[in-house]
Amino acid sequence: MISEKLEKALNDQINAEIYSAYLYLSMSAFTERAALKGTANWLYVQSREEMAHAIHMYQYVLDRGANPSFADIHAPLALFKGVEDVFEKVLEHEQKVTAGLNSIATLAMQESDHACYQFIMWYVNEQVEEESNDGDILSKLKMIDGDKGLLLNLDSVLGTRIYVNPFPTDSKLNGTAPALG
Questions:
Q1: Long-range contacts of 30-36 (CB under 8 A, 24+ apart)
Q2: What gap in Å lies between CA 35 and CA 83, rounded to an integer?
Q3: What gap in Å lies between CA 75 and CA 152, rounded to an integer?
Q4: Angle value at C-alpha 177, between 24 and 69, nearest 5 degrees
Q5: Which of these, 101, 5, 19, 7, lies nearest to 54 by C-alpha position?
Q6: What is the pTM of this model?
Q7: pLDDT higher for 176 or 42?
Q8: pLDDT digits (tens, 9 = 90+) for 91-112
């Protein structure tokens, strides 16, 4: 069984991950409308990953004998100044996600919940890559400095991203339903 504090923290994070999926989907739509289909693809893949995180955490809460709870998901931003603004907000958002995950890790350590600590550390470590990738894209956008040809080149590179299920060996999360009776 998991403590009430950790249950609440994990449920808050599940809702934050769902919001993240919602936010990245909104950003994807914005960049799609701006004819940056590669960037739209990159953000769409990010949205799918965030939803996979939410479902993974949801299943963990259930596996620990706790109750997933869901909050209202606020409407994400829909308009941006441009693609650089989008990625500034992506990086800022991921830094907030990192802070939330770090708080859960700290709480798990304080409560000596080694299973929860081990579980959440996957996410903490993954955030290093997330922030690094986002910062790299933002740096490239700043170097481009409005050059439309270079922007289209970066857009083409971002379009090569494909969705890979971060939890492919988890049969509960791979899209198959368990056999009944």
A1: 30/78, 30/79, 30/80, 30/86, 31/83, 31/86, 34/82, 34/83, 36/83, 36/151, 36/155
A2: 11
A3: 29
A4: 50
A5: 19
A6: 0.92
A7: 42
A8: 999 999 999 999 999 999 999 9
